[in-house]
Amino acid sequence: MNHRRNWIVRPCFLLLFIASAFAVRIGDPAPGFTVVDSNGRQQHLSDYKGKFVVLEWHNRDCSNVKKLYDSGSMQGLQKDWTAKGVVWLTIISSVPGRPGFVTPSQENEYIKTTNAVPTAALMDMGGSVGHLYGAKMTPEMFVIAPDGTLIYNGALDTSSGKSAAPKNYVSAALEQAMAGQPVKESFTTPYGCPVKYK
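The structure assignment produced for this chain is given below.
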């Protein structure tokens, strides 16, 4: 009986090991992708080489995401950083029938009603980009440098959606990198809701 259980457990650990081994790491080139956005346009990561790029994994049904958007915090960051030339891509990897899944028209209406200003909202309906980056939570943030390397991955900030004056990891990473400095906290543990891949 124990031998049989080991045969079941070992493949599970092997799959987790393989997944973690191939997830993008800080300092690695950010994996390229092509995804259709909520306006029906193809978005290629390669189009933004030479710019800082923020990837924001999003699920509007997640309570943590709701707090950030209800307070205007995420929209404020989008406005501040896109005004400085940063590309901000909101990515929705929820599959049909799962919380957070939206159609392109529903996403455009959401962007309008929340006054969000991402560069584009990517409809990652099959979850391929999410799996490519190993995105686990919403919100989960990635920052890519102009040379195409990943310089930050993790939580948006220290608040877990609760603090009135949290430290913002994404802003800190961008500020440090733009000043030619290394990112002091390049990886943090993201908080929120699991990405609804299936």
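Interim note for the steering committee: The beta strands are 34-36, 42-44, 53-57, 87-92, 120-123, 137-138, 140-144, 150-154, 193-194. The chain has a mean pLDDT of 89.
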